[in-house]
Amino acid sequence: MYAGAAVVMGVASCGKTTVGEALARHVKATFVEGDRLHAAASVEKMSKGIPLTDEDRWPWLDRVGESLAGRDGVIASCSALKKIYRDRIVAKAQRPVTFILLHGDKALLQQRIAERKGHFMPASLLDSQLATLEIPGKDERAVIVDIALPLNEQVAKAAHFLMKEHIL
Asked: Where do runs of H (alpha helix) occur along the chain?
C-alpha cells in the first residue's frame, strides 16, 4: 500500500487521468482528479480556447496541493507544467511529492486530443501547453514516462519509481 503523495503530470491528452487511476489501483492509493478542482471560470476560459494565466492557476494549484496534504496514499492528476507550479503544490501539500511526467510525441498528443470527447480542453491549447512545459530537473523527485508505452508498462514504470524512492 502506497503511503506517499504523487502527481501524474503533463500536457493535455497525455493520459494523466487514465494512468493516475490505474496507478492508484495498482498501489492501493486514493486518486484525485485535478480537473475537478478547477474553478468554473477557468474551465469556461479553457473551453473557449483561452490559455490560463498564472493568476488563474494559483488557486487551482493550491487545491491540488491541499488534496495531497495529511492523507496517506494519494495520487492526483495535474498538468503541473512549470517548476514553480510543482513547488507550489509541494508547499501546499506540506510533504514530499513525487511527480510522474507523462511525456511523448506531439503527433501522438494531437491524435489523442482530437479523438477525445466531452472534455473542456480544446486541441488549440496543446501548443501553448507544450511551450509552457518545463521538464522536471534532477533537483526534483520525478520520473518521465513515455506515453507511447502500453498502459500497464506506464503504470509499472511509475510504480517502480515510487518503490525506488522508498515511499511505497
From this structure: 16-27, 40-47, 54-68, 83-93, 106-115, 126-132, 151-164
Question: For the whole prediction, is pTM greater than 0.85?
Answer: yes
Are the beta carbons of 11 and 79 closer than 8 angstroms?
yes
CA angle 83, 88, 91 (to 5 degrees): 125
Task: Summarize pLDDT for 101-122 with one digit per residue, the tens.
Answer: 999 998 998 888 777 665 555 5
Separation CA 73–CA 95 (nearest Å): 12
Q: Using DSSP, state whether 157 is helix, strand or coil.
A: helix
How far apart are the C-alpha atoms of 38 and 63, rounded to whole Å?
Answer: 8
- Between 19-28, 113-122, 128-137, the lowest mean confidence (pLDDT) is in 113-122
